[in-house]
Amino acid sequence: MARKVLGNDPFGGAPAAPRVAKKSEAPPPAKKSAKAGAKPSVRPPPKPARKSEAPPPAVQPEAAAPLEDSVVVAVTEVLAEAVAPVENAVVTAAAEAVTEAAAETGTRPVVEAPTPSLEDTVAQLDALLDQAGAEAASEPVLSRLAARLRALTLRPSAPPATNLPARTDEPFDAARELLASDFYLRRWGQTAIRDRSEEIDEFGLDPDYARRWQPVWDFLYERWWRVEVEGVENVPATGRVALVANHSGAIPFDGIMLATALRKEHSASRTLRWLAEDFIFHFPFAGAYVNRLGAVRACQENAERLLRRDACVALFPEGVKGIAKPFRERYQLQRFGRGGHIKLAIRTGTPIVPVTVVGAEETHPMLFPSGRIAKLLGVPFVPLTPTFPLFGPLGLAGLPARWKIVFGEPIAMDGYRPEQAEDLVLVNRLNEKLRETIQASLDGLLRARQSVFKG
């Protein structure tokens, strides 16, 4: 029977490194000993390790390491599990060969486990790669590796069982929300709309919000500015109507005062919607505030939609030029634009009521132009008055000048055809006539006024 000697040179040389045979090679036949009765040489025991050589440190799986180190440890463990069967097979084959040699010679050799070396490890890895080349053999290894990686990244492949307590991330979600950049902006928005009612129309009017601010405007209307109203009966009780007024005061409260006058003095207490300039919506909180009180962003589309719903709309054709003019030019009407309000009234058949406002120019007089500051803020102008911004929010009330609002005779527009709105000659003629009517009313009120603060 052939003998197989493992790890021992029969010629007395140094022990050779074990060699793992490839799949294509057949193991060489073992050579018989020259003398049948000779005892087989036994491999000497390995030399003890020096005291200075310390064993390699063990891996601490419970140590807090980065994710990359955890992945490396997981791969190493999976590879170790895959190498174990191959290593056991090699050891078993070696033990069988030694047993056969001892049976032939009748001796009992002492076999010790070989010390793993670099060549042994490389050979075992080559055998493992050959084994992983086959899909059937590599599937269990890859499956275990994927399961270990999923466990490290806390992403289970299957949903947790229903009988187990559900994992909650509420503390982490709360901390993540507090650290988010838009958290405080969302909280501010929630606080700002907390008191919004459910009856807001599509243009932004909030009836509940307007009612809460009525005491403030009533105080300014009755006690501070002591507004006097004439001709309020010229405003129709029902149906669409356009109130065209002069724009006065560096801080335009004329729209709010017109709405307060109709609510308090008109027999039908009509709700007024007035068109506000675009630049107001560029100031913090100003645009949203007046919008909830009843202001609408000035454009032809919004005005036409309101009038076709039979609303009472206030228009200020002077625009920004009417409130940004210096104090020496007070009550001098600026150009009424290109007659957009006339075209709108002709298209919709809306009557026009000219309105004159006196007293607002002295309440918030413009001290001097603020071109540089306005350019920095990206707005047409910044109101600089004797009280604002010097006295802060209280300065918005301005000086206690007495106001007077006069509603003139209505001008009917239902006698014109809608296509005549494109007749520029007709539009300009009606526009100049309306401007002259309001200017004449202003001049008459200023001549009759005895004092700015007493009226």
Structure summary:
With 455 residues, the chain is α/β, with parallel strands linked by helices. Helices cover 42% and strands 7% of the residues. The radius of gyration is 48 Å and the shape is elongated.
What does this structure look like?
The chain is α/β, with parallel strands linked by helices and 455 residues long. It has two domains: 67-152, no CATH class; 203-448, Glycerol-3-phosphate (1)-acyltransferase (3-Layer(aba) Sandwich). It is built from 14 helices and seven strands. The chain has helices spanning 67-105, 118-133, 135-152, 170-179, 183-192, 207-224, 254-265, 286-293, 300-307, 320-324, 340-348, 360-363, 371-377, 424-448; strands at residues 228-230, 241-245, 272-276, 295-297, 312-315, 352-358, 404-407. A seven-stranded mixed β-sheet has the order 1-7-6-2-5-3-4, sandwiched between helices. Helix 1 (67-105) crosses helix 3.
